[in-house]
Specification:
The protein has nine helices and eight strands. It starts with a strand and ends with a helix. α2 packs parallel to α3. It has a six-stranded parallel beta sheet, with helices on both faces. A two-stranded parallel sheet has the order 1-2. β3, α2 and β4 form a beta-alpha-beta unit.
């Protein structure tokens, strides 16, 4: 019995093991929503605080994020967290950082313990991860679970975020849309601080319920015992 977490994985398993393979598709999930974290932090309306939290590797596409920021005209603090798993790639990113304009302040903040992830993410206006592909995207779920909207590529299971008020999932071929999203968050914060965060928190509180997935996992494991 094979476990897959999405349709793409299911099709891969069927193609590899054949149509008779028994595959159980159950979505992945992160921790429960952490809405008890205080999101009403006093923020500077003239600076957009953006966070990247992931491995420093080509797949996570940090250099693309830096390219997008280079063209932005707003003042942005861009903090980078995560282990450097590809040192050569990080050297490439450091070159991008050194060439950023004065309105973009990018800093590498190192690795943080898992238990501190929520406390870190809640401090930012936006989570930025233009990844080349995710099976699930735990950091995306963690960001939303504390009310921080996300700006991601369309290469993850997280789709149609904008109508839900959760952020944006944009094609990597559309640099302009990424910059428009940054400007929208900046302008929203100037008009009404925490407005977007309130929308995210409201959606998460109503819709992030993993009880069904938990029960599906229990059923799967019980069948295997």
């Amino acid at each position: 019995i094979f476990h897959s977490t999405n349709e793409k994985e299911t099709m891969y398993l069927k193609n590899f093991f054949g149509p008779t393979a028994k595959i159980v598709q159950i979505s992945n999930f992160s921790d429960r929503a952490n809405l008890d974290y205080d999101s009403n932090i006093i923020r500077d309306p003239d600076i957009l605080n953006v966070v990247f939290l992931s491995r420093i590797a080509k797949m996570k596409n940090l250099h693309y994020a830096l390219e997008i920021l280079k063209d932005s005209r707003i003042n942005i603090n861009f903090d980078i967290y995560g282990p450097i798993s590809d040192k050569q790639y990080w050297k490439k990113c450091q070159v991008f950082i050194s060439n950023l304009p004065k309105n973009i302040n990018a800093k590498y903040r190192g690795v943080i313990e898992q238990k501190l992830v929520y406390k870190i993410l809640v401090k930012y206006d936006l989570f930025f991860l233009p990844t080349l592909g995710e099976n699930f995207g735990h950091a995306i779920a963690e960001s939303l679970s504390v009310g921080t909207p996300v700006l991601i590529s369309n290469k993850t299971p997280w789709k149609n975020l904008q109508p839900k008020g959760l952020g944006w999932d944009i094609s990597l071929n559309n640099n302009e849309e990424f910059n428009k999203a940054l400007e929208k968050v900046f302008k929203s914060n100037k008009r009404r601080p925490n407005q977007m965060r309130e929308k995210v928190r409201a959606y998460v509180k109503k819709n992030f319920n993993y009880e069904d997935e938990i029960n599906h996992y229990r059923d799967l494991f019980n069948k295997l015992i």
